[in-house]
Amino acid sequence: MSEYTKDRARDRIARLAGQGLDLVTFWHESSEAVATAVPHYLTPCWFTLDPVSLLATSHYQNGLPEIPSEWLAHEYFEDDFHKMADVARSERGISTLHEATGGDPSRSRAWNLYMRPYGAEQEVLVALRTPAGEAWGMLGLYRAPGEPQFDDDELGFLQGVSTHLAEGAQRGLLVGEASDPEEPNAPGLVVLNDDWSVDSLTPGVERWLAELPDGDWEARGKLPPSVLAVAGRALRTAENEDAPGDIALARVLSREGRWMVLHGAALVAGGGGASRSSSSPPI
Q1: How far is Cα of residue 48 from the mean position of the Cα atoms in its chain?
Q2: Do 216 and 251 sit in the same domain of this protein?
Q3: Residues 199 and 136 in one domain
Q4: Are 168 and 233 part of one and the same domain?
Q5: Phi-psi region of 264 (alpha: psi -120 to 50; beta: other; left: phi over 0)
Q6: CA-CA distance, 170 to 220, in Å (whole number)?
Q7: Which of 163, 183, 211, 213 has its CA 20 to 30 A from that of 115?
Q8: Do 25 and 138 fall within a single domain?
Q9: 228 and 94 within one domain
Q10: What is the per-residue pLDDT across 149-168, written as a single tens digit (0 to 9) for each?
Q11: Same domain, 209 and 233
């Protein structure tokens, strides 16, 4: 694959990650970009992970509505050579089944039960980790018998875009939950313009703004300082991509005495900062 093709795919994934897409749309669009740089069998397998426990929390694969329940039971109960949690904890954050099995994938029970019957010979797993090291997802790519093994250039490309994929997944989860909340305590989304004025709010976010200290949104339209601080950090990090970024996250003790977590991310489409606020259990 030419460097030009890989550069275009890399740039497209970076742009997608900053657009605040819902998770399914982000996975779908990213699948097309990945395929141009790293050819593979069928379609990519995307997972979101709980960054603390590294348990899979959702799965998306175009053409496969759901994975067999026994596959996840095997992933987290039985010993095997190529586990998502192991890859997520590893220094490289990427691994092939051939590497893990010493070149003999038939040693893997998962390969015999869940890959070979579907026509897959090879597997590469890529941890989707943020610059802070949190694993928010996992990407699995496969190749059929007779196809070349994933080479160093392809693995390097996947490592290079993994941070963008992690950021897009994290934003997709937050945007999706804020835009279509399933419970009263769902996160809220605040989108800011370049001049730090409010562009839009998701329904119910006023409740969280009222709880944050030193703000007065309902009476005077004054945002809490913590929201502006997180948005400023997010925009600065986005505008300095070549420098190590600080984490745009704050834990704030609310007026009600509970801890709230603020996440910040810059949205490319609007050019400004976006601050997401959500409640969390006391820490």
Answers
A1: 7
A2: yes
A3: no
A4: no
A5: beta
A6: 31
A7: 163
A8: yes
A9: no
A10: 999 999 999 999 999 999 99
A11: yes
Lowest mean pLDDT among 21-35, 141-155, 165-179, 260-274: 260-274
Q: How far apart are CA 187 and CA 175, in angstroms?
A: 9
Based on the fold, state whether residues 171 and 234 are members of the same structural domain: no
For residue 128, what are the β-bridge partners?
137
Question: d(Cα 7, Cα 162) in Å, to the nearest integer?
Answer: 14
Q: How far is CA 95 from CA 6, 103, 109, 118, in A?
A: 20, 12, 17, 20
Q: Which CATH number fits the domain that encloses residue 228?
A: 3.30.450
Phi–psi pair at 201, nearest 5 degrees: -135, 145
> To 5 degrees, how large is the angle CA 213–CA 216–CA 219?
160
b/e per residue, 234-264, with b = 16+ CB within 10 A? bbbbbeeeeeebebbbbebebeeeeebbbbb
Count of domains observed in the chain: 2
Out of 162, 177, 192, a domain closes at: 177
- Please give the model's pTM, rounded to 2 decimal places: 0.73
Same-domain status, 38 and 56: yes
CA atoms within 13 A on the CB side of 159: 15
Last residue of a domain, one of 151, 177, 203: 177
